[in-house]
Amino acid sequence: MPQVDSTPSPSMAPSLVSVLGRIGTMEVCLAQTEDEIESAQQLRFKVFFDELGAKGSATLEQRDADRFDPVCDHLLVYDTSIAGPKHKQIVGTYRLLRSERAFETGGFYSASEYSIDSLVNAKPDLRFLELGRSCVLPEYRSKRTVELLWQGIWTYCRHHSIGVMFGCASFQGTVPAAHALQLSFLHHNFRATNDWDVRALPDRYQPMDLVPAEAINPRVAMFAMPPLIKGYLRLGAMIGDGAVVDHDFGTTDVLIILPVSRIAERYISHYAAEAKRFT
Fold it and tell me: What pLDDT, in 10s, does the model give residues 70-81?
């Protein structure tokens, strides 16, 4: 496969402090060096390719990398109790792409699945942030790690005056019917309002309305929901129109749309208090 440039992006904001959150020996920071970005790409390879069987954008060095990496910021979770250099302490990552950087480089990653540009163009007064490539090593998949990632994201959003977060979130597998209960529950209960709605591209659109609303047990549906999607819903996220099958990553994707104005006040208060410590 062709090599992918992983040179640190000029989008990294030097005025933002290096540590964006901390819980015990765990820290969340923005990547500052090429070694840190490559370590994040290697972690993504372990999760997406080795663990989940993806077939997409890997390099010969066993890194998950694509053309968006050089223009994104990379949020990293470190376990500082691990011996060795800092880039070897990375146990989780999120990829962050702000709208101004997307405009400079030819769009958002999600635009290959959803008509996201129409929403961005309709709200020129808001700054958009695309969240993607979220992954954590198996032994660190805990509430504490998720909490730390959201500390970092909220500190980042405050620093850059982000008004809307969005991105694709996934169900494992390429048969939407295998997730009929969860997809239908999202369709009936969390669809985006008209002013925020985004539809899957026509040639990729998969219907989500697979089970009648009256046949759905909400508790069962939520229990079966992927933790990442469940977390977004708790914050106040909405879901775009239609699912998309991603054969490269072996997933069925839905679009998450999370205006900051919709985030529940209790979460705003909690993360704002944490963010003040690191801004």
Answer: 999 999 999 999
Structure tokens, 142: 């805990």
- The 8-class DSSP code of residue 46 comes to I
Distance CA(275)–CA(152), nearest Å, equals 8
Q: Which residue has the tokens 């801004």?
A: 279
Give the Cα separation of 32 and 124 in Å (integer): 30
- Quote the Cα angle for 43-13-108, to 5°: 60
Q: 51 pLDDT band (50/70/90 cuts)? A: very high
Task: Indicate the Cα dihedral angle 174, 178, 179, 184, nearest 10°.
Answer: 110
Q: What is the pTM of this model?
A: 0.88
The crossing angle, in degrees rounded to 10, of helices 143-160 and 227-235 is: 50
CB atoms within 10 A of CB 263: 18
Cα gap 141→63, rounded to integer Å? 21
Residues making up the chain, counted from first to last: 279
Both tokens of residue 190?
Answer: 């969390």
